[in-house]
Amino acid sequence: MYYLVDGSNLLGAMNELGSRGAEISLLARIDRFCQARRHRALVAFDGMENHEPGRKFGFGARVTVCIAPGRGGKDRADRLLLARLKERKDTQGVCLISSDRVLAALVRVTGAEVMGSREFADMLQQRLARATDDSEKEHAIRGIDNSEFRRLWGSSAPDRSRDQGVGD
Q1: Are 78 and 56 in contact (CB under 8 A)?
Q2: In the CATH hierarchy, which fold is given to the domain comprising 2-164?
Q3: C-alpha dist (Å) from residue 70 to 2, 19, 46, 102
Q4: What is residue 78's DSSP assignment?
């Protein structure tokens, strides 16, 4: 499965929108979830002032993050996800994660699946609950050069570069 995730929408469904470190935590959960199922995800966030519009970068083994161009505007990530879906020749095995009804209707017409943000958040939480100890919960963010994330979301991102010998 290839997930197209509206990251801001998902954070809202999890009541974590605006929380310090919420984006990093969310990306780590999605990466761990995708690793366990051998799936991939593109997570889109609405435009941010401190990041290049349209910038795309990896997070972990199975997640790509894309910052929608421009600042503000709740539908910027929606448009980016729809554009990414239109780029695909085949929508089988693609699932949009969003609670936006208009976007969901447009995506369903393509034949792709749609799952609400709350339902996906519950799936992520169930996966996290199955983690047996703190080291497994931290596994998704170990060894990642997260200088890009610290630049985006500030110093709340754990600095693993010193632990793993990864430079900024």
Answers
A1: no
A2: Rossmann fold (3.40.50)
A3: 25, 22, 8, 21
A4: H
* Full-model pTM: 0.75
Which positions ≥6 away from 154 have C-beta within 8 Å?
20
Please check whether residue 24 is in contact with residue 157, taking contact to mean a CB–CB distance below 8 angstroms. Answer: yes
- Going by C-alpha positions, the residue among 145, 140, 139, 150 that lies closest to residue 160 is 145
Map out the domains of the chain as residue ranges. 2-164
**133-156 pLDDT tens trace:** 444 445 545 545 556 656 666 655
**Tens digit of pLDDT for each residue in 14-39?**
988 777 788 888 998 999 899 988 99
DSSP, collapsed to helix, strand or coil, labels residue 4 as strand
Q: Kindly report the CA angle at 156 between 135 and 17, in degrees rounded to 5?
A: 100
